[in-house]
Design a protein that fits this description.
This protein is α+β, with helices and mostly antiparallel strands. Helix 9 packs antiparallel against helix 10 and helix 9 runs antiparallel to helix 11. Strands 14, 15, 17, 19, 20 and 21 form a 6-stranded antiparallel β-sheet that branches. Strand 14 and strand 15 form a beta hairpin. The N and C termini lie far apart (104 Å).
Length: 723
């Protein structure tokens, strides 16, 4: 039923002028007051005091903000030795944080003027973001290489574009060396190849062009990431209602966001655009003129940076239609929604037009690369059940099907329950992407700042006319659960064609890494497959390992032994933690995982752990090597051989020590001793000659089956001198 013209006129008049300013939120803070009596305006005088903490929730938010500032100060301490001037920032930021906590709960805050409160609030934003910039500087100086291929691709593409070269027609492979991307930072395909084509829309790299034109190239992409994240926090703080503003500082300082920004995840670039698009997004229904264009234009530009914002469009456009039709009927609603979509697509097209004209095929292939390049499954979403628990893995396509079902069902629920789920318009894509075969953590959290702004600044003027949810929504939910649950169940139950077991390892000794693996692979399917292997450590895949021996194609229902060699140092897992071998096939797209291999369960501890004096030549010292478990508890097992080695790490290289261990020959290394009933091996050491450098002693265990050393102790340095 279409509302009458009187209702429509009232809605237009009310909606057009009801947008709150940054200082007058849509929902007054007093509505959240715990009592009906007037609520005090704010706490605090002095550094860090804020008027917006006038309610219990507001005071709590500002308290957390103060703690965040203290944490920023603690983060910056790591740089004070190299850059002493940072100690000033540590003191100022830490003190401001403590003052914020104190002022948030101080009755003296009532006497602070509103203008002063706003100034102090913005000063706190500046403190937090200034600390973030300083911390980012320290991270870049410590590890200047780019952490991901995506950020390297974007800067390299911008460099090509600056010289008039279409980056969609060129390989991005040179960017790996140019920006020092770790070999483990590449994106791999199921066959072990690397993705080397530009994989994002044009604005992803065009943003760098003005800076490159000015000659600013060193660490440019990281600098842009940091700058846009600061802008995101500033915008969120400005747009949120007063009682929620501290949330912008808190969320913007969480380790997951700042690590992504500095680590090379380019999602940060579209966040300020999305925040602008989310601000009062459903007011487009009643707005006219240039002001109405801001939201869809910013959404289109966000889509021109990366593919994640694409999934927001169906929800927002549908919401625009549903709200507009209560004013002007279905036709009017369709016109309004079409206008919004047209503006969005036009804004998306503008940065991409030159490359579409130059080579439309290359451009389309480039922006669809993440969906069409058969990349390896990875991430922290539902796919983790296959990657780490070994559940299913036989059909990676089933994960894609699950995501499609969740998207469709989510959209149908959005429609049938509107406006109940309206506040999730900018967040629902995160739930969809949780079920894809590549479901990284950045997909789940990057949309949160924009979603918060969208939720807090929506126009509720038409809520009474939108009506309650349709009864149909229960059927949609039930059907969706069955459909999505069915596809996900298939993904988790479809057996991978391969079965993998680690049967042998070869390590690098004191380097404490694994450089060769022997695996037994069984093909349980009815057709031959071509396996490719990688190693997973801590949820990150390494570069694909080289097959030293084993058949290239494993016949149906056959078993074979493969010897795998690490392709580089970065791909070698440490023996101090667990790892697993992943076997991939592209026909069908599948993944099989071995059981976790734990090379190290015990380790050795030396006592004493330090000798802070010269040991005279000929004087015997006793060193006890205790075998401990993973929780540093003694292992009471007798007869375990412990090996103690000696070496001198001199300035010009390694020098053999000349100490005598357990009555052996001078310089003999290593020397073994068996543990007693308490799990302790004893070594008697005597120095035989003075040295300019200490002699370093280190103990380890040896695996009795694979014969690799492990469980290395800390190093004990001994200076032999005296008479």
């Amino acid at each position: 039923m279409t509302p009458g013209t009187g209702d429509a006129a009232a809605l237009r008049a009310r909606g057009a002028d009801s947008f709150p300013s940054a200082h007058q939120p849509a929902t007054d803070t007093d509505a959240y007051a715990p009592h009906s009596s007037p609520t005090p305006a704010a706490p605090g005088s002095g550094p860090g005091s804020h008027p917006e903490a006038s309610t219990l929730a507001g005071r709590t938010w500002w308290t957390v903000t103060g703690v965040i500032l203290v944490l920023w100060a603690l983060r910056l301490v790591e740089g004070v030795t190299t850059y002493p001037w940072i100690s000033l920032a540590v003191v100022v930021v830490g003190l401001w944080g403590l003052g914020t906590v104190a002022a948030s709960w101080s009755p003296a805050a009532l006497r602070v003027r509103p203008g002063t409160r706003r100034t102090l609030g913005w000063a706190t934003v500046a403190m937090a973001m200034g600390a973030f910039v300083l911390w980012s500087f320290l991270q870049v100086r410590a590890a200047p290489g780019y952490g991901t291929d995506e950020i390297a691709f974007n800067q390299y593409a911008a460099t090509l574009a600056l010289h008039g070269i279409d980056p969609y027609t060129r390989s991005m492979a040179p960017s790996f060396a140019l920006y020092h991307v770790s070999p483990n930072g590449f994106t791999f395909t199921l066959t072990g190849g690397r993705v080397t084509t530009l994989s994002y829309p044009a604005l992803a790299f065009e943003l760098y062009l003005p800076f490159l034109a000015l000659g600013l190239a060193t660490q440019l992409a990281i600098g842009v990431n940091v700058a846009v994240w600061v802008l995101s926090v500033v915008l969120a703080y400005a747009f949120l209602p007063r009682h929620l503003r501290p949330a912008a500082i808190v969320i913007g300082s969480l380790s997951v966001y700042i690590s992504y920004a500095i680590g090379g995840v380019t999602d940060a670039v579209f966040v300020p655009l999305l925040i602008g698009a989310a601000l009062g997004w459903n007011r487009f229904v009643t707005q006219r003129g240039p002001r109405a264009w801001v939201g869809p234009v910013l959404l289109g530009l966000a889509m021109a940076v990366k593919q994640t914002p694409w999934f927001i469009v169906p929800f927002v456009v549908t919401g625009i239609f549903l709200e507009a039709r209560v004013i002007s009927g279905n036709r009017g609603g369709l016109r309004t929604a079409t206008r919004y979509l047209a503006i969005t697509l036009a804004a998306f097209a503008v940065p991409n037009v030159p490359y579409v004209i130059a080579n439309a095929t290359a451009w389309v292939q480039g922006i669809l690369t993440p969906m069409s390049s058969h990349t390896v499954p990875a991430g922290q979403g539902a796919i983790g059940l296959s990657l780490f628990l070994g559940a299913g893995g036989g059909s990676l396509t089933a994960y894609t099907a699950t995501a499609v079902v969740v998207l469709v069902v989510g959209w149908l629920l959005f429609v049938t329950t509107y406006p109940r789920m309206r506040g999730l318009a900018f967040f629902l894509p995160s739930i969809v992407l949780f079920f894809t075969a590549r479901s990284f953590g950045s997909y789940f959290v990057t949309l949160v700042p924009a979603a918060l702004v969208a939720f807090a600044t929506m126009d509720h003027a038409r809520d009474g006319l939108l009506g309650p949810p349709r009864r149909l929504w229960r059927w949609v939910a039930a059907t969706g659960i069955l459909a999505g649950g069915g596809t996900l169940a298939y993904a988790l139950l479809a057996s991978a064609p391969l079965q993998v077991a680690i049967t042998g390892v070869r390590t690098t000794g004191q380097l404490a890494t694994v450089q060769r693996l022997t695996v037994r692979v069984t093909n349980r399917s009815d057709h031959a497959v071509h396996p490719a292997f990688s190693v997973d450590t801590g949820g990150s895949l390494t570069a694909f390992w080289l097959v030293s021996s084993g058949p290239a194609d494993l016949a149906a229902h056959h078993q074979a032994t493969y010897v795998l060699l690490a392709p580089n140092y970065f791909a070698m897992p440490a023996i101090t933690g667990g790892f697993q071998v992943d076997a991939f096939t592209s026909g069908p797209a599948s993944v099989a995982t071995s059981a976790a291999y734990l090379p190290t369960t015990w380790h050795v501890s030396l006592q004493p752990d330090a000798l802070n004096h010269l040991v005279p030549l000929g004087q015997q010292i006793t060193v006890r090597a205790a075998v401990l478990d993973q929780l540093n508890q003694p292992v009471h097992v007798a007869g375990v051989p412990v090996y103690l080695g000696q070496i001198i790490y001199a300035q010009r290289g390694l020098v053999y020590g000349e100490a005598v261990i357990n009555g052996g020959q001078p310089g003999q290394t290593p020397v073994s001793a068996l543990t007693d009933a308490g799990g302790v091996a004893t070594f008697e050491i005597v120095g035989t000659q003075r040295t300019a450098d200490p002699v370093y002693f280190e103990a380890n265990l040896v695996n009795p089956a694979q014969f690799y050393p492990y469980g290395y102790s800390d190093i004990l340095s001994v200076r032999f001198g005296g008479p």
